């Protein structure tokens, strides 16, 4: 028996990518699962492929819908109410345009999902964890939260929020046994780029051409690992890139001449 068996794991954005891989990883460990996303059909297909012994509750949830998020815990069946691990994974990037050409609706959707959705879920689940004196919030941040790149503007800023919010939670939760971790992945091949490129499969594929990116299972293994560590160990943040990725030198423009 491993220490995640029968623990109840709530994963947002479980219909693809990291969230789906986390569901499979925790199911393999014998955990109970609460899976949510907007695409219910995808969740149901995922459930049908999990071991039949796995206890799963699926719920359609748009994390940008504050009323639904607020009603979420009350709608959980009794057996799934005591969440041990919340994986705040639902998120997205939209567009790669420079700030002066970006779509404000895209920016707002990223804020609503990556920031407000994550805050709302945390606010719903955390009181129960504190009351039970048991729990772990795992936020999925990004390297983009620390390292700016052209076109990363609002997405990177939303993940910088996740980074600092995770630290703030740690500060608030000192004196409780509740743990908080921010996992900050770099280049990873999921549906992330297809969403960012708004369905343009060619552009999405180009992101990964001639690379060996992280895969969803890499991140799921890390999420599993940080949550299965002994209960006195808190991984505050974990930044992970594929070997083929690193930082650029600071950018220097040589075209402006006397203009500045
Ligand atoms: P995917 O696009 O494969 O998965 C994103 C998941 O988020 C989907 O299950 C989607 O479900 C869900 N989601 C999006 N919007 C909402 C919403 N409003 N309400 C509920 N669920 C939502 O991408 P990844 O798995 O790569 O992304 C997961 C997380 O990892 C994101 O937070 C992303 O920012 C982060 N990340 C990704 C990296 C990468 O390179 N892939 C690197 C670093 C971080 P549905 O559409 O069914 O609602
Ligand atoms: C996703 C990784 O580098 O595309 O968060 O921003 S990156």
From TrEMBL:
The entry's keywords: Oxidoreductase
Pfam families for the chain: adh_short (PF00106)
Single GO MF descriptor: oxidoreductase activity, acting on the CH-OH group of donors, NAD or NADP as acceptor
PROSITE patterns in the cross-refs: ADH_SHORT
Name of the top EC class for this enzyme: oxidoreductase
EC assignment: 1.1.1.-
Family per similarity comment: Belongs to the short-chain dehydrogenases/reductases (SDR) family.
Name by which UniProt lists this protein: NADP-dependent 3-hydroxy acid dehydrogenase YdfG
GN (gene name): ydfG
